[in-house]
Amino acid sequence: MDPVVVLVLCLSCLLLLSLWRQSSVRGKLPPGPTPLPIIGNTFQLDVKDIRKSFSHFSKIYGPVFTMYFGTKPVLVLYGYKAVKEALIDMGEEFSGRALSPVVGRITEGHGIVFSNGKRWKEIRRFSAMTLRSFDKSNRSIEDRIQEEAQCLVEELRKTNASPFDPTFILSCAPCNVICSIIFRNRFDYKDQNFLTLMEKFSENLRMLNSPCAQEKHNQHSEFTMEELLGSATDLFAAGTETTSTTMRYGLLLLLKYPEVTAKVQEEIERVIGRHRRPCLKDRNHMPYTDAVVHEIQRYIDLTPNVLPHVVTCDIKFRNYLIPKGMTVLTSLTSVLHDDKEFPNPKTFDPGHFLDENGNFKKSDYFMPFSAGKRICLGEGLARMELFLFLTTILQNFNLKSLVDPKDLDITADVSGLMCLPPSYQICFIPV
Questions:
Q1: Which helix (H) or strand (E) holds 391?
Q2: Which residues pair with 397 in a beta bridge?
Q3: Half-sphere exposure of residue 307: CA atoms within 13 angstroms, side-chain side
Q4: Angle at Cα 310 formed by Cα 304 and Cα 315, nearest 5°?
Q5: Taking Cα atoms as reference points, which of 159, 194, 202, 155 lies closest to residue 177?
Q6: Which of 17, 137, 283, 417 is deepest in the core (most CB within 10 A)?
């Protein structure tokens, strides 16, 4: 038989098999856009801003719909109710973590973020307990953040109010906090070992966009050296890039809206003054500053779809049959930018977190760290860092842009895992 004919027949069989498999699976799953054979819905997605695609499809198919990435079906959850029902109300069933080939090659399933099952539960419990024990040691985590905030101020003073891109310095500060917690020692921002460490984490991010003495002879223990190294790596990677990017984006927003900055500085002056170091207790007396920090996180929508989850067992969800192992994408954008909870969600407005009397107002829709059993382990650390770093900076400096604030571009790059702010330059003018 002609080889060309054989090839055509084989491809036709594969195509028919693909169509049959998709149609049989789709009958049990939530509705969604019709996938093409082999490639699925790939060409129907706006790869430059997948948030727009999910918003569009949710209006057609509802808050729970199915997308095909290639031949693989993926469950998409859109809106607060669907996200809460899955991640909180059915937290155990939705607690698995998807592992892509790239991630698998980097982590090999070790660490907190990308492990699963018994391994994940034990490592997460151990890590949370260890962080709490660090906080109760001779020097609390708050002390270490305060120390680093002062070091950050000194580095900013060295710029002599000249314009510069703050990316590097703002990355050093949260990374050094993790170093101080894990190694009990911070590093100079020019230390070569420290710079190498930061470069390795940046490299891994680009590819994506002591129980150990007690347990080494236990063959069934999850506390292996590989797991402990993986967990430490997760703390560095997640605790450095997310916090530094949030601060970098936050300072850009404060440049864009100088009236907001002025109100924060007035509150700092009234509550803290010029000479005392900001502390976490101040947050209770600074509702406007607290609202600004929350609004920065809400507005920038740092991780629009967070990391993919996996269903841990066959479940019934909203009258649909969701099979074990199915990947789940949760749209945090749809929660953080909900227009009923946050009027004019695409506008930066600290009033979203203030009541009519100017008091801080909590919101269940505030999910920048995700929710449920896979909520970010470093949420508490990140919240401390953001408040202490930003208040310490604004206590010591006025912010100046090279262009008129009205002309500043605050449009995010959303083509990767995180929403990144555009590059900009800033001057820190000593008060």
A1: helix 379-396
A2: 430
A3: 18
A4: 120
A5: 194
A6: 283
